[in-house]
Design a protein that fits this description.
This protein is an alpha+beta fold. It contains 25 helices and six strands. The strands form two sheets. A four-stranded mixed β-sheet has the order 3-4-6-5, sandwiched between helices. A two-stranded antiparallel sheet has the order 1-2. A hairpin with a 2-residue loop joins strand 5 and strand 6. It starts with a helix and ends in an 18-residue tail after the last strand.
Amino acid sequence: MSALAALLTIATLGGPGLTIDEPLDVRPGRDYFTVAQRAGWRFFERANVDLAFRDNAEHPPLGRWLLGLASRLGEPFEPLWNGFDPTGVHVASGRFAPALAFAALVGLIAAEAARRWGTSSGLAAGWALLVMPRVFSHAHLAALDTFLSLFWTLALLAGARAVEARRVTPAMLGAGALWALALLTKIHAWLLAPLILSWALARLPPSRAVKAMAVWTTSGVVLFFAGWPWLWYDTIARWTAYWGTSVARATIRVEYFGRIWNDRDVPWHYPWLYFAVTVPVLLHAAGALGVVRAWRARREDRLPFLLIASILLFLTVFSTGVPVYDGERLFLHVFPAWAMLIGYGCGRVWEVVQGSRPGRIMVVGVLLSQSYGVVTMHPFGLSYYNFLVGGLPGAERLGLELTYWGDAVDRVLLDELARRADEGSVAALAPTLYPGQGVMTTTASLARRDVILQDESAVDRADWVVVSRRRAYWSPELVKALDSVAGHDLQVASRSRQGVWLSALWRVRRPPNPNPRNGDKPFIP
């Protein structure tokens, strides 16, 4: 299962367009290695630590180290398969790291489900995670979310197994070290502590549970601090700032049921709905069967309840006024647990039909059919919605976010711009969420035409506008510009799925300038 996931993910890495966070995560990782190469063992001195981490201390560094490593290792070979990268960040190479992390994650849950519940459950669990369109799509992106999914799940399963071990103390010491990997990836990992504590209290006498948790916590926290040199200096101030990153941060706008919300004001049911509508329906049915099976076998096997608790914990947390946005992205790490429960339910079905060849064929056929969403939506799986809302067209009617991370502005669309645009034309990308996003999105084919994508602020003077359909961030100026060309057949290209456009290329006609200055283009109808 792991090899299959690696093959399918790596073979399709170039599909999605550059997403918002990718350069912001890959560039710091490359910088870590640059500073380390220059400083050697002096890397851990304060001046070098400050230089490496000062502008990207909002997240712990492990994920960015991995992205930087993949980017630098792949850089010499990238022109052979992806062409020249005019930005010098080499995000395409960085994408190999989350792809391999996803492959490891699929293998991890398949192996653990098979060990506990049988081979059929293991295969079904791995397959279920592989064909969840949004999970599969995130595995293509050089960002932190797939790393968190891997390390969170690894720490959760290791903690559960350590509590059940014959020698609990050394097992918890190792499990705590794996927890440190999750802590070094994203702040979410601190919420593993109440889950493992509850599991220990349920499985061990109170005194042994407390001792085991002390070992686990000490191991994890010590290695967390050791792995993040940024915290070694001005520890109290930086520790406080780290915990404040979820509070002292820019507000992100969210489109939800046709209304634009601030991330703290999104209705409580937002995470529950996105959990429900971003997984194929029959996989949800198998997961529900797994929950029922867990209840019936509650005296023999309690691990499914730990998995259920890990899912409910985050859906509940993000229902309480904590900022939530980008669909399922912030709780992406709950889906491996759900995939294991899906495997648990499928294992029960397989037991029932095991003596019937038609029954076995039917089960395999149903599981294979759940890949429909991955196949038909790729490379825009982040826009997948299941039949509960009528697919992507239903989501459009309901006013849900159709695309939120820029992945629909892909190479196909940008190559079309390069083919059509005159040399030196002004082209703008909209919306843009940070300065320089347009430049970072510029491809080699555009650079050869001397067409460098500008940020959204250039829309009013652009010849071409590349639009991502993240409507929560459409500015009044962009809406006005699009309204002015609507009905004039000036949308020259688009990228769509299920009849819904997700990104588009617009030829913007501007009024003639009777006295063009140097560098201005006269109007050509």
